[in-house]
Amino acid sequence: MHLNPIQLFDTESSTFTYILAAPGSPEAVIIDPVDRHWERDLRHLERLGLKLAYVLETHAHADHVTSAGKLRELTGATAAVPSGCGIATAETQLNDGDTIRFGAGETIAVLHTPGHTAGSMCYVWRGNVFTGDTLLIDGCGRTDFQSGSADALYDSVTGKLFALPDDSRMWPGHDYKGQSVSTIGWEKRHNARLADRSREAFVKLMGELNLPRPKLIDVAVPANQNLGLPHGG
Questions:
Q1: What tens digit of pLDDT does each residue of 179-233 get?
Q2: Which residues of 137-162 are buried (b: 16+ CB within 10 A; e: fewer)?
Q3: What InterPro entries does the record tag this protein with (predicted)?
Q4: Dihedral (Cα; 119, 123, 124, 125), 10-degree rounding
């Protein structure tokens, strides 16, 4: 059963933040919150009568600073992060195959999907998959820094994400073209980087992108490894 998440957007980094909640309990989960929007996100929760149970990160981001630590301090939520991302200050280190439980019997399945970064995770909830920077609408995350690997990304997408049901709603970590949601089936058939492309062709394509270095990477990655809090905080 699909139950749509609440999708919020940061225009500066084109990052999507998601709030997950279901009938029967006020408990909610937030995925990939952005530091400058912590007040907005808390207002959303308050307006909907929700209590934050978990703050999830899909990876240690290079293009924005998370508000995970701030939200944890203010709400008492548990910070849950991919175990391979070096975010030592989070109390829950997630591994492939783990299950996050919240609300009235709600479960989120944890998929380790390395490629964009070595630790990247995707989260599956009620027919929705939150793909972070692993799979984007008609694209995918870059693989040229932060322990990235085009080979690993190809395996993660084709072996794990494309193995999900075709009608799974796919919610990306970013979008730069005004899109908001896709399906696994559409991406399997049409994704410009991955559909009908061999591993060798994909690795070659990713190696030739020659993208600029993220402006915030030297600030964002260390900050995000401390949940966005000042070190020592």
A1: 999 999 999 999 999 999 999 999 999 999 999 988 889 999 999 999 999 864 4
A2: bbbbbbbeebbbbbebbbebbeebbb
A3: Metallo-B-lactamas (IPR001279), Mito_Persulfide_Diox (IPR051682), POD-like_MBL-fold (IPR044528), RibonucZ/Hydroxyglut_hydro (IPR036866)
A4: 160
Helix, strand, coil percent values for the chain (each to nearest 5): 25, 30, 45
Question: Which residues on neighbouring strands pair with residue 195, listed in sequence order?
Answer: none
- The angle formed by the CA atoms of residues 164, 165 and 170, to the nearest 5 degrees, is 70
Cα–Cα distance for residue pair 197/205, rounded to 1 Å: 10
Per-residue pLDDT of 57-91, as tens digits, reads 999 999 999 999 999 999 999 999 999 999 999 99
- Which tokens sit at 149? 């690997």
Token readout for 161 is 């994400």
Q: Which residue is listed with tokens 């591993």?
A: 199
**CA separation for the pair 14, 29 (Å, rounded):** 20
Mean per-residue pLDDT, 98-109:
98
> How far is it, in rounded angstroms, from Cα 71 to Cα 35?
9
Q: Three-state secondary structure along 18-72?
A: EEEECCCCCEEEEECCEHHHHHHHHHHHHHCCCEEEEEECCCCCCCCCECHHHHH
| Domains defined for the chain, CATH in brackets | 6-224 (3.60.15.10)
Token pair for residue 203?
């690795």
